[in-house]
Structures are given as structure tokens and as C-alpha cells.
Amino acid sequence: MVGTLAIIISLSTLVFTVLLTLFSSLNLITLAIFVVTFNIFQWLISPYIINAIYRVRELPQNENPKLHETVENLSRKSNIKKPKLMLAQIPIPNAFAYGSPIAGSHIAVTSGLLDTLEYEEVEAVLGHELGHLRHRDVQIMMFVSILPALLYYIGFSLMLSSMYGGKRQEGGGAALLGIGFMVFSWILNMFILYLSRLREYYADRHSVSIVDDGSRKLSEGLAKIVHKTRNMGKIRKEAKQLNAFKALFISDPDRAEADAAEVTRFTASSDQKLVQEILSKEITSIDKIVEAFSTHPNIIKRLTALQETR
């Protein structure tokens, strides 16, 4: 994770150095300040946006004391303060961690998750989400996401300036440079997607480290989440607007169709057999391409990694 983060920062620094040598530093700094300020503001208020989009409410202690006790115990093992426990009123089984300095840290489980998984599997999912908070993944992903956004807007500004000002020859050069920066922002996004997938592996490992028999519990939970989500095709289509913050989820709903192709002929009689059936499949070239554009790892690779942490 540290190596990928270093590559992202290094590439961005190189590009900004080139920009400062080619253009007015004042205009560039003004644009940078605007983009950074906007992204930080968005991060600060994002918990309130998430609560509205996902119909999230705080789960009172007396409504589910066992779940609160589990979060408290796992938070203690993670050496972090217990986050607010939230409930998202959506049928798709999932969970996510989020927060900001003004809103505090939150962990949300969906009503679909509580209905789909056994309690021990929910415990492992909570361990995963606490791993994100322990590793400060919310802050890290917010930080690195600013970089491609800044490059994109710089490129877009160069495109506009080439269309509405300057000489034709200079405008053509600015347009090409603008396209170059927009393409580079896309390349940088690919590194960020890779970083996002890495943080999922680290969060999985964290769950295994703080939950008894965590590898088995999380493996079964992830397999059941994918299998259940795939069978909720109509609901997933109706809930497309819920994908705005899908990088937060423990499992990407958009990948459910591809991931669950591994269990299309599922006839296993137990949760562990479901896991083993997924693990018996081979990862195709198409799977690798799809994964490269995803915030989450391929389910086969993810379950394989969990088996290796036993």
C-alpha cells in the first residue's frame, strides 16, 4: 500500500513541477486551492450526504445491544475509539466505514446484511470495516482522490482556454496539453483503484487478526454477500443511485454479476462448500481486466488470500 501511495504522489509531483515551469504559478495555485478546498469541504460533509443517500440512522444501544457490544470489543482490539454504529435501510447486504473530523467515525451495516448473514459472519464484516478506520483508509483515499481531480480540471481549463482565447497555434498546443493532462488523470485513477483494492486486502487481514476464526467467518460472509446480491438484480438496478460511494462498501454491488458467475451453478449444502466452490474456479483474462477497473478485488483472489491467512 505504501509503495502504491508513493508512486501516486511522485507522479503527481512530477506533473505539477512541469506545470509550474510552463504556466503562470499564480493561476495554477489559484486553481489548485479551489480544487483542494472543494474536495476537503466535500469530505467534511460527506457523512451527512452518505446518511441521506443510504437512508442511514444511528442504531440505538437498546435496539441491538449485542451488535454494539461486538463493535466495542473489536474496537478495543483494534486500539481505536468505538465508532458510531449506524443502520442503512437498504436490502442489499453490505457494510461500510466512513467519517470526517466534524462528524466522527461511523460504521454502517445494511438491513440486508443483518437479514442475510449469520451473526458470526456479521462480526467478521465489522472487523473488516474497523480495519478501514484503523488504517485511516477514508482519509488516505480522500487525499489521493484530490490529485487526479486537480489534473483533470487543469486539463479541462487548458482545453477551454484553447477554444476561447489566444492564438490558433498557441491554442492548439494548449488543447493537446490539456488532453494529455486529462489522460494522465485517468492513468492516475488506475493507480488509485489499485490502492483501493489493496486496502480491501489489508482490512480483510485486520478482521482475521481480531476475530476468532476470522478467516472462515469472513470468507463465508463475503461469498454469501456476493451470491445474495447477484440474485437481487431488480433491486440493484433500482438502487443504482446508491453506488455513488460504492468504494466504501465491503463488496462492490456492480461486481456482483461478474463475481457471482463463479457460483451460478451453486448447489452446495453449506456455507463452507460455497466458499470452496468459488475457490475451485479459475480467474480468466476478462476477470483480470474487469478487476483493473474495480475498487474491489476479484472474489476468487480475495477468498484465496483469506485462506492463506489461516
Written description of the protein model:
With 310 residues, this protein is an alpha+beta fold. It has a four-stranded mixed beta sheet with strand order 1-2-4-3, sandwiched between helices. It has 13 helices and four strands. It has one domain (2-308).
Short recap of the structure:
This protein has helices spanning 2-22, 25-53, 65-78, 111-116, 119-134, 137-164, 168-210, 214-230, 233-238, 256-259, 271-279, 285-292, 299-308; strands at 56-58, 84-88, 95-100, 104-110. It is of the alpha+beta class and 310 residues long. It has a four-stranded mixed beta sheet with strand order 1-2-4-3, sandwiched between helices.
Write the layout of secondary structure elements.
Layout: H1 2-22, H2 25-53, E1 56-58, H3 65-78, E2 84-88, E3 95-100, E4 104-110, H4 111-116, H5 119-134, H6 137-164, H7 168-210, H8 214-230, H9 233-238, H10 256-259, H11 271-279, H12 285-292, H13 299-308
